[in-house]
Amino acid sequence: MANKNASIQFSKIIKSLQKVVNDSIKAAALLPTSKFAADLVVKRTRLGYGVSKNMGAKEKFAKLSPNYVKQRKMFAGLDASTRPNKSNLTRTGQMLASIRPIIVDGKIIIRPTGNHKGGFSNEQLAKWNEDGTRNRPRRVFLNISELEFNQIKRFYRKTFGDLVRFRK
Predict the structure, then answer these.
(1) pTM of the prediction?
(2) What's the structural domain count of the chain?
(3) What confidence tens digit (pLDDT) does each residue in 59-88 have?
(4) Which of 89, 120, 145, 152 could hold 124 in an S-S bridge, CB 3.0 to 4.6 Å?
(5) Do 85 and 109 contact (CB within 8 A), yes or no?
């Protein structure tokens, strides 16, 4: 009889664990981790670094052209978090301020949202920066570096641990 009670208790534990795991992979439970990841991307970009491929290393953005630096010196709306010669995708600050996690078809995507004052979307502006041209270097910034991935994992583990403690 004791053996049956042990198996019943163990099945309850397994069901409880399955519920915690299932809850932890739902988009709503992942939003805090996604917000953390978005904040890492914004912070790195403001410091002047991008990541050209997912899980790659962070790389310093190409310098701004002398003509663009002159233009930024004359621009009255330059964001307080940058300088005229700082290559950090922050002219007005709108695009980076709009980056957030959103749920699309049950998946979480981190991207710029909303419209820019210039009449186009912040997402279009991000793509324009990432595409580059012969005269304008690429500035890829929406990928996650390997170091950032490790930070995100640590954040998720803590969040997951909190979820397990909350379930008890």
Answers:
(1) 0.82
(2) 1
(3) 999 999 999 999 999 999 999 999 999 999
(4) 120
(5) no
Instruction: Give me 89's structure tokens.
Output: 């995708």
Q: Specify burial of residue 31 (Cβ count, 10 A radius: 0-12, 13-18, 19+).
A: middle
Domain that holds residue 64: 27-167
The answer to whether 162 and 32 have CB atoms below 8 angstroms apart is no
Residue in the block written with tokens 């005269």: 135
| Six token digits for residue 66 | 């002398």
**Residue 41 belongs to a domain:** yes
- DSSP letter for 110, please: E
- Evaluate whether residue 9 is within a structural domain: no
Spatial separation of the C-alpha atoms in residues 22 and 102, rounded to whole Å: 20
pLDDT in tens, 85-110: 999 999 999 999 999 998 887 788 99
In a domain, 17, yes or no: no
Cβ–Cβ under 8 Å, residues 75 and 69: no
